[in-house]
Amino acid sequence: MVKLYEGGVYLRGGMKLVRESDAAAAGIAATPEEARRGTIAWSILQAHNTSGDPEALKIRFDAMASHDITFVGIIQTARASGMTEFPLPYVLTNCHNSLCAVGGTINEDDHVFGLSAAKKYGGIFVPPHIAVIHSFMRENFAGCGKMIIGSDSHTRYGALGTMAVGEGGGELAKQLLQDTYDVAYPGVVAIYLKGAPRPGVGPHDVALAIVRAVFAKGYVKNKVMEFVGPGIASMTTDYRNGVDVMTTETTCLSSIWATDEDTRAFLSEHGRGDEYRKLAPADVAYYDGCVEVDLSEVKPMIALPFHPSNAFTIDELNENLEDILREVEVEAARIGGKKVNFSLLDKVVDGKLHVQQGVIAGCSGGNYDSVVQAARALKGAHIGCGEFSLSVYPTSQPVALELTRRGYIYDLMEAGAIVRTAFCGPCFGAGDTPANNGLSIRHTTRNFPNREGSKPGNGQLSAVALMDARSIAATAAAGGVLTPATDLPDETWDEKCEYHFDSAPYKKRVYWGFGKEDLDSALVEGPNIKPWPAMEPLAQDILLKVCSKIMDPVTTTDELIPSGETSSYRSNPLGLAEFTLSRRDPEYVGRSKAVDAVEKRRVAGEDLAEADPALAGVFDALAAAGVEADSKATEYGSMVYAVKPGDGSAREQAASCQRVIGGLANIVSEYATKRYRSNVMNWGMLPFQMEGEPNFEVGDYVFVPGIRAVLDGELADIAAWVVRADGSVEQVKLAIADMTPEERAIVKAGCLINYNRQKNA
Q1: Burial class (CB in 10 A: 0-12, 13-18, 19+), 501
Q2: Three-state SS for 433?
Q3: 291 pLDDT exceeds 70?
Q4: Which domains does the chain have, with CATH numbers?
Q5: Which pTM value belongs to this model?
Q6: For an engineered disulfide with 303, which of 219, 267, 311, 404 has Cβ 3.0 to 4.6 Å away?
């Protein structure tokens, strides 16, 4: 159902694929360099590029969006850097920490801060429970040929003709300061769709099939996924939105789709028909790769714990149930260690898998189309009064209004489902946490460890499997017995979902303040809202103490800084930092803070060797090995080694939490995503890489001399020395992937705030 091409391809007439090796025989004379200008992505990126160099992009976006886990930090960063107003439409939604269940008033305090910031600087404020961030942006801001940046990794509006990018808060602060998003021109991969989905197959099924095929190979990593081909016409725009939002799980940079009359109809229904224009590749366009998807062959899918790429057709799972579930149990044991006793095989009864919970929610599952299909499957059904439960979260109040008007909410509730307000909580562990040892099936975006809210470190572990709303509803109708939607009669499914957009909730509750800033109005800062602590500029030489070493194949953002209830402290940098790596390496925070305490004494005027006598031995060992090192002029910081960190969320806290308790660098084999690496640099940490196995352990040291000079030159061969506990010294080779001049300057300044202050001065 999914085929990956080796090498580049040409697309002729928007419909016919031609391998690069067959171009001459097909009469294609254009070179790849010429024909890549025929992609949709090229035209949009260059229209927003201010550099004058088509290969080195400096992008200015049309709009921005943040939610209430990220907007306080972004605004505080921009304020500290000299911002006086929001220079572009900036939407502040309150869809993540909507509840005040943890930490007293601090969640609502952030919402009040957001409204006061919107009034002061000219922003758009969406109160809690009104809409999830991406639904609001699709309904109000996405349009053909636009670019939008959001501080949430699932910022994807490609099906509406908008190239959207999910990034860390530092990149949004740059836009508020009228700086640019700097990136080398990315590769563009064609996602060639043909055929049509069979009845009962939904957008999550298509998305999971693609994620399974490309993720492990890194096929579209940091590239643009451009959806083309005749199969697009077989999907409604809302269906396309459901596929598009999951492109984030491939680790691509952005996405874009060819548009058609259905796109026009969607925009027109939302009062923005003037933002439609036809987007299509040129008659001859070149792509750096191609993912060919035969939609007619896609079957209902299930992505088992603990990653969206761990996907199978439900038929494959049922045919190999015990073998596949046993493999997941092995992974659960690795994640949870000795504290956790997690099992899936005990959920197999009479050869069938029984699940304990279903959730349809968020920017992927809560879309009108998906909820309607779930309601059709459950009309007249009964989910039972056992342990299985079903929660449905429409993605916005306008969607909920229409579902109510047409009776779909009645059908869901009459069947036993619980219908809730627009809220992203189930997607990151702040809502509908299943019981310990429970299995939840969800039409949400991720199923990483802890994303459902469990705490393996405390002996609590539940798990999530991703499925489409259609198959979740079929499973609910079967009382929790795993059932693909295609087992229901074809007449259950009617892909025509008439929809009328009622903007009343937005007109009556959203604060539309762009261009209406009142600089004399006050920001309202609750007691948990704290400014960023001061960061020092990078010294000439650095000494890193290895404070954590993670050898997992991939380390997610949620492992670097857990989501869920810890996010309540996101506006308190030092408070949140106490949770850094807490579910993966609980000793890390103490180790890093000890390093930071010594460094603070150095900054106050002490010699490192005086501040920590153990460091005298380190410098003695370096001297004995012939390495010049001055303990009085060397900056001291903590370091994390991870094989491939940063898969998942765009939250900048994954990096800033390391930084505020002494983090100075990461050493990795590779970075899982551009956004995490950007966060590392924006917070003044060095994004080192090294080949092969690390030759150091927790407690060892890595000395890097002349690092400021290194940042002025080539980054491919950086000399460093490991000093071990036994006093032995070994030289190692580090490297840093290419950095823009601005990124180098930010790291040397110590962080983005310092850089902007220096620039403004």
Answers
A1: middle
A2: coil
A3: yes
A4: 2-55+186-297 (3.40.1060.10), 63-181 (3.30.499.10), 301-487 (3.30.499.10), 541-760 (3.20.19.10)
A5: 0.92
A6: 311
